[in-house]
Amino acid sequence: MANLKLFREQVDFYLFQAGIESKERNVDERRGMTQAELADACGLNRAELNRKLNGKSPISSILVKNIVIALAKRYGITTKSQAKELLTLMNVPDFSPADWNALPLNLLEEDTSVNDSRISVNDTGIPRLFDHFCGRDDLFKKLKDQLCGSKITRSIALYGKPGVGKTVFPRRYSLGRARNQSRYRKYTASLA
Predict the structure, then answer these.
(1) CB atoms closer than 10 angstroms to residue 89
(2) Does 89 have pLDDT greater than 70?
(3) Whether CATH 1.10.260 fits 4-107
């Protein structure tokens, strides 16, 4: 099922990022991309794009792909995983290999860097009062695989909108690892 609300929030975030990334890359674009500029890049007017992003008219998979391409052109998205995340949110099939090898998608970075891995912590709609992270097992597994998958020291950046758990998530992960190591120590001590 498509998650239009989260897709819209991610697009807004990447529109803002377009200005920051452009500035860091010394491109003449010194501000975020506007929704009107995005609409123009997709062949729509701003009002029509706004209706589609707000669910008032249907959004096609071609439009979703055009949005991804437009954001990639302006450095709003810089990695393939960000592009794939947007496609996944709207249940849109992946780009073809020919598309990935064409501009601007071929400029997107692979997420296989040894020292810089990113995990998106998206809001699952779970109130923060809960003491556990129900429904975030995939993120815990991804974090564990990236941190513990090899002997190489790794840096991981968690990114997302405010209030989605970027601070609490690693704390819960660390707490869980500490508890597991404590149980392991008790178990091995009782065997000795």
Answers:
(1) 20
(2) yes
(3) yes
